[in-house]
User: Fold this.
Amino acid sequence: MHTEKSQGRFASALSDVFLILYFIFALFPLVWMILVSLKSGPELFTTQFIFTPTIENYQAILFGDPRAAAGVVARQEFPRNFMNSLIASSGAVLISLIVGVPAAYALARYKFRGKEDLAFTFLSFRFAPELVVIIPLSVIYRQLGLYDTYFGIMWVYQLVTLPLLIWVLRSYFEDISPDIEHAAMIDGYSWWHVFFKILMPLVRPGLAAAALLAFIFAWNNFMFPLVLGGSNVQTVTVASLGYISSAQGFFNRMAAASVLASLPQIILALSIQRYLIRGLSFGAVKG
Amino acid sequence: MKTKTIYWIMAVLVILSLVISACAGGAPAPAAEAPAAEAPAEAAAPAGEFNWRAHEGESLKLLLNQHPYQQALVGELPKFTELTGINVTYDVFPEQNYFDKVTIDLQAGDASTYDVFMTGAYMIWQYAPAGWMEPLEGYINDPSKTNPDYDFEDIVPGLRNSEMWTGEAGRDSMGAGSQWAIPWGWESNAYMYRKDIFDANGLTPPTNIDELVAVSKKLKEINPDMAGIVVRGSLNWATIHPGFMTMYASQGCVDYDENMIPQMNSPCAVEVTEKWIDMVKSAGPEAWTTYTWYQAGSDFGAGKAATLFDADILGFFQNQEGAAAPEVLGNIAWAPGPRGPEGQLNTNVWIWSLAMNAGSKKKDAAWLFMQWATGKDFLTTAVVEPQYTMVNPVRQSIIDNPDFQKRMEFHTDYMKTLQEIQAGDMRIHFTPSPIFFETTTEWAQALQDIYAGADAQTRLDALVKSLTEQLQDVGILD
Assistant:
């Protein structure tokens, strides 16, 4: 008995050590990115952890480069690129919510011809590689005048965000027994009331998790804004590469830009964390 | 049920395509009216004087790579609008994915967004056969379209001839046929070294390939923490074109013979490759197979390498306050690449250029822009004004400009090296081919394999076999 207990304690201590080691391993790239973002040019290529931190990289990307006159490429359009990412990603998620929630409901509740085919078609947007469709899309976008517009980017982001939202929410709606809806209707609720007052609160964890994931995928997308956008809608993912230019590789500014660009995702994730864990695991094992 | 679903999908697709084509049909209409509106403006020009305002009120869109050259252009654009009344907008994309962007955009043909784009000379071999580039000789030779002070001949011959091409793959096809792009700014490949280290150890820049290997090894011996030489090595065509191609061409090797048979396994080529890889293995950077322009330049600027064999302006960019480590700044010196057995210096070049989109609907206005952007006024400003960095200038008159020469004095032997390189056979030393990027990337793969231990002759034989098959597939070889 005694040995079993100590063995158990030993095993749990061992797993703690492994977890801590893994934690360090997993977070190290992030720590390194933050360190690099605080380094000045000459210290950039050293691997020392002790150095004099500077905020000049953040200043340079937010307010412009004081040394631009020396012929070194200056990028000071970060705030604009950041706003572009924010507008395009939140717009895309919003459109997906408006279109995707009713679609998920319909796919979960109603029986109609070609239902599974339709659901599969939505899913296929997600697993078809972007490169397969990018050239025809670029031609169509130019002909329709959608090239380099916010709406164009939000629209094409539906390929990324919509399937995710529909498939996660569909399983949530399927979990809710239709009896609840019927009961509410007997109590005198209209269908719209049932939908907004009964169903939406019930699927909220799934909605939060799916919307957050959709936002992150849209935010991280690189190929669509590269090909279908010009300078007007250039997002941080495309623009961040510009810190490495022919003249000089500003890896420190790129790191600073990456730190700032990951903030919205981190803030969003933290703010809806209480839904998130439930939301991510809830629908996971459903058929 | 399945068939019905398919019918539904087909019906939706048909309706969609109808809507799209209806929209597409409507779009180009305003642009098609443009020439009619131009006519009175041209007629109003005083006889005998070049009319810069022939396309007043039109607007152009440029596709630009983020680069110091682009910065100079954007800074001076208001002057072009003031001169011509043409409004210019532009999109700038980072260099890493710039050519992906260009390639996809040009595929849109008439629907393409851009009138003029930045390009490299090698891209001509891919873009021109596809019909994406407008031939420019018709504009250059037309006195009603080109201002009398333009002086196209002033552009260094090795550069402008490198952008003339008949459209056929082959050794004689360059320097003839159409002018597909106008050189704008260029890089010659040179040997850059740390003067302080060379002086302290009594070394001099190598004059032939054996000395190049020996000096690199010697430097590594002196400073084991520092690479003796840094050159590019990533799995990319760009690994071949700077130092390696310059050494290869100077040594007298060719990439293809006159019948387009690959020659990368010739005795000359095998010798250069073996020596090059020996040099990189014993004196190069540790992670050589990941090295691109950026790593090569950064290492040299950060004092982690004693020499660099790459574009001359890569050393120039590193030799700037803020870019270079304190011990490096001002200590970089330039020399031409090592010479061949008969003393020949066949330097390969990279040429940033401006080209016109064949799908542009405003070609005359686009040509006005191109002649302004490659003209003497703009290029001189971009070279002489301290806020711009348009080195190397493509025009001989600007290379000779005392203000430019004065600006370059800080960079030891830069101008002397440039003159020596120009006195040699300075041009693109690759043989034009529409599948240049595929074949040259495979060449880089062979270098990496030899670096990893493969026998040079065997691996290069395999390379030649594979390239021959590819050339047969696209119909270049029988």
Remarks:
- Strands of chain B lie at 59-65, 87-93, 116-120, 164-165, 178-179, 182-194, 307-311, 332-336, 349-356.
- Chain B touches chain A through 52 residues (CB under 8 Å).
- Residues 16-45 of chain B have pLDDT under 50 and may be disordered.
